[in-house]
Design brief:
14% helix; MBF2; 7 strands; three-stranded antiparallel β-sheet; binds 2-acetamido-2-deoxy-beta-D-glucopyranose; 115 residues; disordered N terminus; mainly beta
Length: 115
C-alpha cells in the first residue's frame, strides 16, 4: 500500500515537472553559482531549434555541478557535448520541439574553496 502511494506521488511529480531537466554533479553542498543564465529562443514554424550554450570558467575553476531547467516545460532536450563536471568548461546542446520555442535556465556550480 505504501509503495503504491509513493509510486503515485513520484509519477505525479514527474508529470508536473514536464520538460526535460538536466541536473548533474553537486548543485547543493558547499558550492556556489559561478554562472546563472536564462536563455530563450523564439519558435520557428516547423523547425526544431538547435542551440549551444558554452561556459568556460574565467579563473579555471573545476565545475562541480550543472543544472538546466526547461523553463517552458516543453519537450525540449539538453545534453552535455563537451566538458562538464570535473572540467573547467562545458558545452551544451539544446533542442526544441518542432515549431516550439526553446528556453532553459542554466546554473553552473563551483566550489569556492577548490581550484
Ligand atoms: C540528447 O541525447 C539524447 C539521447 O542520445 C537524444 O535523444 C537527444 O535528441 C539529444 N538532445 C540534444 C539536444 O542533443
Amino acid at each position: 500500500m505504501k509503495t503504491v502511494i509513493l509510486l503515485t506521488i513520484l509519477t505525479t511529480s514527474l508529470l508536473c515537472v514536464g520538460g526535460d531537466h538536466l541536473v548533474v554533479g553537486n548543485t547543493a553542498n558547499r558550492v556556489v553559482l559561478a554562472e546563472h543564465k536564462r536563455v530563450e529562443y523564439n519558435a520557428i514554424p516547423f523547425i526544431k531549434r538547435v542551440k549551444y550554450f558554452f561556459y568556460s570558467s574565467p579563473d579555471n575553476k573545476v565545475i562541480q555541478g550543472i543544472q538546466a531547467l526547461d523553463t517552458l516545460h516543453s519537450k525540449a532536450s539538453i545534453n552535455i557535448t563537451a566538458g562538464g563536471v570535473g572540467h573547467s568548461f562545458v558545452n551544451m546542446r539544446m533542442k526544441s520541439e518542432r515549431g516550439k520555442a526553446l528556453g532553459y535556465d542554466i546554473g553552473i556550480y563551483v566550489n569556492p574553496q577548490y581550484p
